[in-house]
Design goal:
Blueprint (H helix, E strand, L loop, with lengths): L32 E4 L8 E2 L4 E2 L5 E5 L12 E3 L2 E3 L6 H10 L17 E5 L1 H5 L5 H4 L11 E5 L2 E2 L4 E2 L2 E6 L4 E7 L8 E4 L5 E4 L11 E6 L4 E7 L8 E4 L5 E4 L10 H4 L4 E4 L4 E4 L11 E4 L5 E4 L2 E2 L2 E2 L4 E4 L4 E4 L13 E4 L5 E4 L13 E4 L4 E4 L11 E4 L5 E4 L2 E6 L2 E6 L3 E5 L4 E4 L12 E4 L2
Antiparallel strand pairs: 1-4, 2-3, 4-37, 5-6, 7-8, 8-11, 9-10, 11-12, 13-14, 14-15, 15-16, 17-18, 18-19, 19-20, 21-22, 22-25, 23-24, 25-26, 27-28, 28-29, 29-30, 31-32, 32-35, 33-34, 35-36
Length: about 450
């Protein structure tokens, strides 16, 4: 008997082909991928769930790129995509419902394009009301694994913006409903605070309202509560945790009417969890939207890429908490990336800049490396497949998995930007890029990837 997509040998099954799925109609609901990085799945079954234990490290992928009924997943292991750890999200949800962990399928809000996603600690999951771990009464103190929380997004299957927050528990390898936003939203940010609560800022709803109203998710109660109003609405912004516990919110736009783009660009602000107050932050020299931000090991925040009043922004800037100011970098990146760029902190403190669109809205192959010791950029290896809107996840060995997004694709429908099912790995020691020999089972765009703690 097959249970939850696992065959009699204990391996996960590959999803069946679903006919009628054209490359040009991909967007929508939940795609969840469970990507083991090191080794094989443990052969011992979890007696409480009747399935193999999940891997010691994983990256969870969710949202974007598919029709609502196409729930599938991939595994990344031994430098290639394969079906070793396949699971079906749809089946997971239905079985969770029968165990009393989920609302009925008719009331379900799958996660679609543009959710926000954050890692969640093992301790936070264990104390979260309604989580699979707490429902099953499991302590699992041995090598406890965390999970990932996916919040909101656009549910194209239902035709509305979702309020749902879904939790993936890496220890029990299961999904559950974690709570509901006060305001359904997409294109928002989520930031884990020092006390493990999650701050949600900005985003837009189905009527194109850009939110000032912020919310905080408390894992201890499983509820979203108001965090007050930001100084400005934001979409296309970033939100970074500072060493003192505050959150730095940078840029974006405050209206979708960009006829006067300079006026539409939003300012910067801080959120202080101690007082639940927003306050103005120093301005960028070049205000922007669609950029990337990464928290450096020294507590500073690097801002790179984006689109401003004069077009694509080439100059990068660094927020220095000690000086409470944005500073220029020693040199500019070699490429202006107007949107869809990733910035990933490496274990040696450098930052890998990859992906994005150039001034001609073409995906960029070139990568760059930022060195915080000299505050300078240098060329990195080219991507094997130029892409934008991809996701990048640092793996436990320090390498970076770059996946999905959009690139130039030629098929029966012609040549143009389309969703990608390819991935590649950056090796920091060799400063090399290697393409995976196989592809994901399904192309993905406007999704999120989270490496679970």
């Amino acid at each position: 008997m097959q249970t939850r997509g696992i065959d009699d040998s204990g391996a996960f099954l590959r999803p069946p082909h679903i006919p009628g799925h054209g490359r040009r109609i991909r967007r929508a609901a939940m795609v969840a991928a469970f990507i083991p990085f090191m080794g094989m799945l443990c052969p011992e079954n979890d007696p409480a769930l009747g399935r193999p234990e999940p891997p010691t490290s994983a990256t969870v992928i969710a949202g974007g790129g598919l029709k609502a009924y196409q729930h599938a997943a991939d595994a990344y292991s031994n430098d290639e995509w394969n079906d070793q750890a396949y699971l079906r999200y749809q089946q997971e949800l239905e079985e969770a419902y029968y165990r009393g962990l989920m609302v009925p399928p008719s009331q379900r809000d799958p996660i679609g394009p543009n959710p926000a996603a954050v890692p969640v600690s093992s301790n936070a999951i264990a104390n979260m009301p309604g989580s699979p771990r707490s429902k099953l009464g499991r302590t699992l103190q041995e090598s406890p694994r965390g999970g990932a929380l996916f919040i909101g997004g656009f549910d194209e299957g239902a035709g509305h913006v979702s309020s749902a927050a879904l939790l993936y528990d890496g220890q029990t390898d299961s999904w559950s409903r974690a709570g509901d936003l006060i305001h359904p939203r997409e294109q928002h940010t989520a930031t884990v605070l020092a006390d493990e609560r999650v701050l949600v800022v900005g985003g837009t709803d189905f009527d194109s309202t850009i939110f000032e109203a912020a919310e905080i998710f408390n894992p201890a109660t499983g509820e979203f509560t108001s965090a007050g109003a930001s100084q400005s609405p934001h979409v296309g912004h970033t939100a970074s945790l500072l060493p003192d516990g505050r959150v730095l919110i940078v840029g974006g736009v405050n209206t979708l009417d960009t006829s006067d783009f300079a006026a539409a660009l939003a300012g910067n602000e801080f959120f202080d969890p101690a007082s639940s107050q927003f306050s103005p932050a120093p301005l960028l020299a070049a205000p922007r939207t669609g950029h990337a931000a990464v928290e450096l090991d020294d507590g500073r925040v690097l801002i790179v890429g984006g689109f401003g009043a004069g077009g694509s922004v080439l100059a990068a800037e660094i927020y220095d908490p000690a000086a409470d100011a944005f500073m220029p970098t020693a040199n500019d990146p070699s490429h202006a990336r107007q949107s869809g760029v990733t910035a990933t902190l490496l274990t040696d403190e450098r930052v890998l800049i990859a992906g994005g669109l150039d001034d001609n809205a073409e995906p960029i192959a070139a990568t760059e490396l930022f060195d915080p010791q000299s505050d300078s950029f240098s060329p990195g290896p080219n991507l094997k497949t130029p892409r934008a809107g991809c996701q990048a996840a640092r793996l436990p060995d320090g390498s970076v998995l770059i996946m999905g997004g959009q690139g130039i694709v030629s098929d029966d429908d012609g040549t143009g930007l389309d969703d990608l099912d390819t991935s590649e790995v950056f090796d920091p020691a060799a400063e090399s890029m290697t393409a995976s020999s196989t592809t994901m089972s399904l192309p993905r765009y406007q999704f999120r990837a989270v490496t679970i703690p």
